[in-house]
Here is the input.
Amino acid sequence: MDLRQLRTFVTVADEGTVSKAASRLGIAQPALSRQIRDLEHDLGVKLFDRVRRRLVVTSEGQELLADCRNILGSTNLLKERAQSFRRPDTGLLKVAATPPTIDGILSVFVARYAKRRPNVQVRLTESFGAPLIGLVESGAVHFVISTVGAMSASKHSLDVMWLPSLEFVAAFDPALPLANGDSMDVRTLGQHPLLLMDASFAVRAAFDAACRVAEFKPNIGFESRTPHTLLALAEAGHGIAIVPSVMPTYRYKLRVVRLLYRRKPLREGYAILRDPRRSLPASAADFCDALIAYAQEVLGSGNPAAKRVSGRPKA
Here is the structure.
């Protein structure tokens, strides 16, 4: 028994004659009759009675006919669903990112993207460090968005789609006499207590590496896995929050300046990462193109910190 035989059974029941059913299905009458006989043999049930020149479904056949229609209907739905995966305007995309990225980029972007692609569902997962990379390697998500430092946790080569680099910024009480302009050398932080992201974040490792290059030993006042805690503490005057430029610092009454070393911004590569061993829905390319464009709008292509320092990005 196969789907072809079930489809033939339903068509003959609808048309009432072998000739009409054969014409509708585009097959020869002997082949159609053979399919009906084979199906009756497989089921052990007579499906039709011949009345005059028409085929009438038997009582047993009537009971099976509804089941056959349901099976064929489910098959059609399966085909339609599979075909929808090839369309860029529908489907499910699973994306994992760190809390700063979800807050500073994805919270607004996903809402904007939903208006343009209402049939694409974007499911977000929050993670950081090695577990973040593990999500894409296990196939739990299609993409992760992270700094390239996190790639060292991967056991496989990942495909990289570059976003504008993140810069490190210092956020502090405006009354604190630091920096004359919109930037400052990391070494001028001196012994001020620094409010830093927890060491489990790859971006923290990047900042620590920058400090070593600058031969600057930071005075760590507090560490947190919640970046907004750092900004709230800085606003209350407890120290200087060091956060990546993706953070929406405009929500706080803080002065925000870029951190430099030898007049160059402290930067870390930032990207959309995927496992090339796994397939992607058709909507993935469109989603990534839109996300890259939005990140360039928010972070800026030449000066990633500029829009975050000057104020709220356009929604």
